[in-house]
């Protein structure tokens, strides 16, 4: 009986050791896969339709805004967006523009203003008609924040572009002090890409979005992956590299401090 107990105990120890080893190998394998994979964003071609855009604003000579304490000096308002330049016969044009396959996409910004600063987010259609507007207060700064459109208020239509504004109101009055603006285009994915997205792992899904020029979806899905694997340094490195690919080096390692789900 004693011999049987010892044998059973040794078997359990061996089983637990093997299980721990398998889990460790799984974690190591996940990190290795992340380290060897590079998510490469493929900017889609932009139609020269005169659409304006401004990715960085704030702290200028005419701004009434104060800047929050930062570990390093960074422009206090930056849209996490690609900036695409087009050369015409008369001048250069800069587009802050991206595609999404989502009907309720998420928008991303770096913000470094004092807490309790008011923000106004406006969405317009191609004819500059306002179709959505909301105002809220920033409660965590400085850092990266995201805004997700409310599902019960508005739905982006496939094949249409929308002009958005992210306005800072530092004087607590109904005036805009600093702002950034850009465009989002809702597109429909072809069945082949949709089938790929349904059958792959999360990181591969991010790569597919990036390869097909879907900036909003790439960033949002990568953020979800960072939340589920918060200790995975390789995933964090992919986020940093992605921002650097579109010229956002100065905020590529700044933390995400708040994710706002817009409700009104």
List the helices and strands and how they pair.
Layout: H1 2-36, E1 56-57, E2 77-79, E3 83-87, E4 92-100, E5 106-111, E6 118-124, E7 130-137, E8 143-148, E9 161-169, E10 178-186, H2 191-199, H3 202-211, H4 215-228, H5 233-245, E11 256-261
Parallel strand pairs: 4-10, 8-11
Antiparallel strand pairs: 1-2, 2-5, 3-4, 5-8, 6-7, 6-9, 9-10
Helix pairs in contact: 1-5, 3-4, 4-5
> Biggest β-sheet, characterized?
6 strands, mixed
Order of helices and strands: HEEEEEEEEEEHHHHE
Strand order, main sheet: write it out: 3-4-10-9-6-7
**Distance between the amino and carboxyl termini:** 70 Å
Which CATH first-tier class would you pick? Mainly Beta
Estimated helix fraction: 25-40%
Task: Kindly state the number of beta strands.
Answer: 11
Q: Give me the CATH fold name.
A: Immunoglobulin-like
- Provide a count of the helices: 5
Shape, please?
globular
**Uncertain parts:** 2-35
Structure characterization notes:
- The chain is an alpha+beta fold and 264 residues long.
- It has a single domain (56-261), classed as Immunoglobulins (Immunoglobulin-like), CATH 2.60.40.10.
- Helices cover 31% and strands 27% of the residues.
- The protein is built from five helices and eleven strands.
- The chain has helices at residues 2-36, 191-199, 202-211, 215-228, 233-245, and strands at residues 56-57, 77-79, 83-87, 92-100, 106-111, 118-124, 130-137, 143-148, 161-169, 178-186, 256-261.
- The strands form two sheets. It has a six-stranded mixed beta sheet, covered by helices on one side.
- Helix 1 packs parallel to helix 5, helix 3 packs antiparallel against helix 4 and helix 4 (215-228) packs antiparallel against helix 5.
- It is globular.
- The N and C termini lie far apart (70 Å).
